[in-house]
Design a protein that fits this description.
homodimer; about 400 residues; alpha/beta; Alpha-Beta Plaits; about 40% helix
Amino acid sequence: MQIEVDYRFPTGVNAEKQAQVIALGQTVGTWDASFAYREASFLAHKAEVVNIENRTDGSALATVRFPVANVEGDIASLLTMIFGKYSMAGPAKVTAIRLPSGYGQRPKFGITGVRSLLNTPSRPLVMAIYKPALGLSAADHAQILSKVAGAGLDIIKDDEILGNLHSAPTLERLKACRPVIEDMQQKNGRSLLYAVNVTGKASQLLAQARQLVAAGANALLLNVLSYGFSVLEALVADPEISVPIFAHPALAGAWCGAPDHGFSYSALLGTLFAHAGADAVLYPSHYGSLPFEAAEEFRIRDALRSRNVFPVPSAGIHPGVVPRAIADYGQDVILNAGTGIMDHPDGPAEGVRAFFEALEHAEPGQSFELAQIPAGALRRALEKWGTP
Amino acid sequence: MQIEVDYRFPTGVNAEKQAQVIALGQTVGTWDASFAYREASFLAHKAEVVNIENRTDGSALATVRFPVANVEGDIASLLTMIFGKYSMAGPAKVTAIRLPSGYGQRPKFGITGVRSLLNTPSRPLVMAIYKPALGLSAADHAQILSKVAGAGLDIIKDDEILGNLHSAPTLERLKACRPVIEDMQQKNGRSLLYAVNVTGKASQLLAQARQLVAAGANALLLNVLSYGFSVLEALVADPEISVPIFAHPALAGAWCGAPDHGFSYSALLGTLFAHAGADAVLYPSHYGSLPFEAAEEFRIRDALRSRNVFPVPSAGIHPGVVPRAIADYGQDVILNAGTGIMDHPDGPAEGVRAFFEALEHAEPGQSFELAQIPAGALRRALEKWGTP
């Protein structure tokens, strides 16, 4: 199988012509008589336009098929080929990328592996984010963790903007939080994953990741688009990184937010993040205030799950969203809440409990009507945030 | 000095409100009474809105000032802070980023260092790109190089889409080309830089770069946005990478091409590439067919030169452009041509000679009128490509 890419061109662009420019310009380029003896070699690298679909809204969708031999089986060389120079040529949006199933990497853990680590075979997982994002000490992190861990939280992550800062160095955060995780493991026979944010220049980041894992980190968080796909791929390929990697979508709006430029969110956060080998991918949900369509969210969900990658809809997630999330996702989903847990009126532990109560009340035959919810964490959450 | 970022919001967006969302949401986030004792710490991390400029076209420019203590002195953590999550919140474009001069890295070579390596203190440098991009063997590369090197070329680079492919592995290309470079060095007492494209997963890429330099590579090429800023920064910081790094803008249109999303080209390819430590930065010129404004190109030029980084306007560069390029750039510029050299009617060597003739004819007191140009390489180039 080859690589197929759909490009959408807005009204007024000659899609057929532009697709041909891509097929030639993004592969071999032109050659002349002096290289005529190499023609077979050039043709083996040339892409071809396989479809042009003119749409009723005036836009057009062109499908270009590229030889796998042009790239290195990774995402970075793929990006350069399919959109490197051409991205600067005028309006065009990459709406879908179809890769051979063997292209790229598989997650080392993914849905099944993360479930196995947490000894939780089937229900949705509940994930929190340390808040406030900046200004907490390492000890503050441990204090927050002890509250939410006691309430049964599955996963917690650093805020993506919290790097290796003087006010709370990464290794110190981990060291402060490890005893809480170990304590919970002893009490409940069950782990809690803390996805520690790995940062820095690529060489430092890879060394830091190994150091963190050696010091007991049981999950990592990476801002893939800030640091680079090649960094995610190196982490996935590294045998010392024996923990799941949570991929954060920071900066994705700069790549995907525009109507006629860049990538669709599903091509980037779905297809490419999955083929890079992330174990779980965070992305904006349509439950909150972000301008995000349900259909696009579900394309991400399906692209991830097709490769055993855990979907992690984020932003706007609070206990009141749970029934809709279950309807949309079923069980294989990580419900990731920042303020939706930390800002519960009765504190973070009650925020976690509200999610687990919500999971019970979202089951078939149960009611999610406020009047039917007994006094407690969920009721308090619904009184604050309502249901979407 | 702190970090200042200008965000442009289109008509209809409440810029004041959104700027406040950025200042709080992209830094500390919210905190409540339970962390009141840490208020001073939170305030030390919070950004502030320092200006709102409402423009006559209905758009607004908001300036937000961020504490340097929030980031790690690199580009990746900066990107996450200034636009990570917020990029997904709706239309907004980062039009300018003002960093403390000590922020990030300085080029190891830059304009002065590259000139010194080439023993060419003052004139514009002439750079070529191997073409066709894919399908040539390593021996073909050496054959092309011997033609252009004999004509006095200063720099040549791989096409950015040519990675470490089976048809011409990177190390083989270098090994085939090294003898040509050494031969020229012996004949002319002067080097020629070959910027070899480094690719792969981050760990492999860094190892490959060291291996290439050890094997005699005297320059490297990196697709910064495909592989990640953290990879560029690691290369710059690596003492074994004792050669200039040419930064390619592949994918920049996905970050910068949209009117109301992403980044301005000058913020990304000017400010951020320069502070990451690139020695020379390629970017689209306004001389060719790419939709690129002169004013934006000159902002890139100035951002690069302010840190001794060589500007490399590319695309649409041919000998006929030289007088305009000299008027726009003066001497500190690298004129980078792909087809503008390789597709000269009389071959690549004549393509190089046409550039050097053009540099002579572009000097004060000389004429660039076709009628005044004697028969030869330049005249043939002007007959093919004209002047812009």
